């Protein structure tokens, strides 16, 4: 997971397509031999897959986002007698961490049984989790249903669908991926408001049952319509390709994901409860959570559009840094409903940048063929931050004053740390482009057409008499 200048016609799909220059030795580039490669159609039935991914995200991550509403209700009403705030925090963390932990198995089932089977397994588990959660009476039962089982179901659906959009697009890859991932924001908006209304009118039990029925119907439909192109691109689909750890760029990618999730989960689950901590009502807290998801739904396609034009690594790093900056300069001082609404919607546009850009940026780092294997490792690494970030935030709360101050500072620094990882990744990418350009000058016949196009764009910048033009051209293409 193309600039505005005259050089924009030279699109850099080389380094994010099947013809990627492999760097198995991390520092020693090795140009692959010229060969016929599959060219993604850049549209067509791919837009149906984008729509399916949108609705799958809305009915997995979107429904999971409503846990902030459940959490605020549990804490305010002592719904499970004797349960602590820390235990409730782990339920929310488990739902995401288990989705990531199950990723190797989901990758394996995709390779052996196909994408549709993987998605239908996810539908069954997610439906079972939501329906069974409606019958829980003790917190350990909530751990197993809304935490573990829902996480497993979400994991099969997410892993089965996350790599499909990049297989259908090249020039519009980030845009298409942004539209698909915006489903989690739009779904979170709808289900945060709907869940609060259902709890008020029908109770927690029926809120869970209605969510389960909706998720089953929508996700089943999408599972039947979506198509992958694994055979066409020769996707490896390895559950754990340890050789990727030999690449420094991949380690930076993992660092970006780790720190991003430490901040993102705190924002996602803590904002509704933060609202009640500054004496807003539970209904206002649910609106805050919904507006955060609205920001994600509006912001993710925009991030996709601009990352295709300004560079995928560039935008990922910049938006991640802005997310941390907003935490420092706005969230810490948000003491009223209006300011918190403003913070929620603008931070929402950049808070989930990782989910919008991980597939396109991952393709830039490891290539499209190895992307599923790389993502499988990314999900495993993210198990730790997604499990413990919200419990850490709740433990950082103070007893008086700005209760969430330490948690807010923690969140901001996590985003800044993630942005630093992306800055170093950008430095690596520019170095890789220089090596490709040098190889093209020395042995033009050994470089495939797409990589030759990338080298031509870089050499244009390199030979420019204007140092400003040189820097702009190089900057735009990362």
Automatic annotation (TrEMBL):
Regions that span the bilayer: 44-63, 83-106, 118-137, 143-163, 175-194, 206-227, 248-271, 283-303, 315-334, 340-359, 371-388, 403-425
GO CC term, one of those recorded: membrane
InterPro entries from the UniProt entry: MFS, MFS_trans_sf, Proton-linked_MCT
Entry keyword Transmembrane: yes
Claim: Disulfide bond is one of the keywords in the record: no
Domain of life: Eukaryota
Subcellular location field: Membrane
Ranges where the record places region Disordered: 1-39
SUPFAM superfamilies: MFS general substrate transporter (SSF103473)
Topology within the bilayer: Multi-pass membrane protein
GO molecular function, a single term: transmembrane transporter activity
Entry keyword set: Membrane, Transmembrane, Transmembrane helix
UniProt family annotation: Belongs to the major facilitator superfamily. Monocarboxylate porter (TC 2.A.1.13) family.
Protein name: Uncharacterized protein
Species the sequence originates in: Imshaugia aleurites
């Amino acid at each position: 997971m193309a600039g505005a200048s005259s050089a924009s016609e030279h699109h850099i799909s080389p380094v994010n397509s099947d013809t990627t220059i492999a760097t198995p030795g991390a520092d020693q580039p090795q140009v692959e031999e010229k060969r016929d490669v599959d060219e993604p159609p850049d549209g067509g039935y791919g837009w149906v897959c984008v729509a399916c991914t949108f609705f799958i995200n809305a009915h997995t991550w979107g429904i999971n986002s409503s846990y902030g509403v459940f959490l605020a209700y549990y804490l305010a009403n002592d719904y499970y007698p004797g349960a602590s705030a820390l235990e409730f925090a782990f339920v929310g963390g488990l739902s995401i961490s288990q989705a990531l932990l199950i990723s190797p198995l989901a990758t394996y089932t995709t390779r052996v049984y196909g994408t549709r089977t993987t998605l239908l397994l996810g539908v069954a588990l997610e439906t079972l989790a939501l329906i069974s959660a409606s019958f829980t009476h003790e917190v350990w039962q909530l751990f197993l249903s809304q935490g573990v089982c829902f996480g497993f179901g979400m994991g099969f659906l997410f892993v089965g669908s996350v790599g499909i959009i990049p297989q259908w697009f090249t020039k519009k890859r980030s845009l298409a991926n942004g539209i698909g991932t915006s489903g989690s924001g739009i779904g979170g908006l709808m289900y945060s408001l709907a869940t609060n209304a259902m709890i008020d009118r029908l109770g927690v039990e029926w809120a869970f049952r209605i969510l389960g029925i909706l998720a089953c119907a929508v996700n089943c439909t999408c599972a039947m319509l979506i198509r992958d192109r694994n055979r066409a691109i020769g996707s490896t689909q390895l559950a754990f390709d340890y050789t990727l750890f030999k690449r420094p760029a991949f380690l930076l990618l993992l660092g970006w994901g780790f720190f991003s999730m430490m901040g993102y989960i705190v924002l996602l689950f803590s904002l509704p409860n933060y609202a009640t901590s500054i004496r807003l009502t539970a209904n206002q807290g649910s609106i805050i959570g919904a507006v955060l998801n609205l920001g994600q739904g509006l912001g993710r396609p925009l991030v996709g559009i601009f990352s295709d034009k300004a560079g995928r690594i560039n935008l990922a790093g910049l938006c991640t840094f802005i997310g941390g900056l907003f935490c420092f300069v706005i969230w810490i001082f948000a003491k009223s409903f209006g300011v918190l609404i403003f913070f929620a919607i603008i931070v929402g546009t950049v808070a989930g940048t990782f989910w919008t850009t991980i597939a396109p940026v991952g393709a830039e780092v490891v290539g499209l063929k190895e992307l599923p294997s790389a993502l499988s490792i990314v999900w495993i690494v993210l198990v730790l931050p997604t499990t413990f970030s919200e419990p850490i935030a709740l433990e950082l709360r103070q007893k008086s004053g700005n209760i969430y101050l330490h948690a807010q500072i923690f969140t901001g620094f996590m985003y800044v740390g993630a942005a630093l990882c992306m800055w170093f990744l950008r430095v690596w990418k520019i170095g890789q482009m220089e090596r490709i350009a040098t190889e093209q000058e020395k042995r033009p016949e050994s470089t495939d057409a797409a990589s030759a196009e990338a080298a031509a764009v870089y050499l244009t910048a390199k030979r420019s008499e204007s140092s400003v033009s040189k820097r702009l051209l190089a900057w735009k293409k990362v």
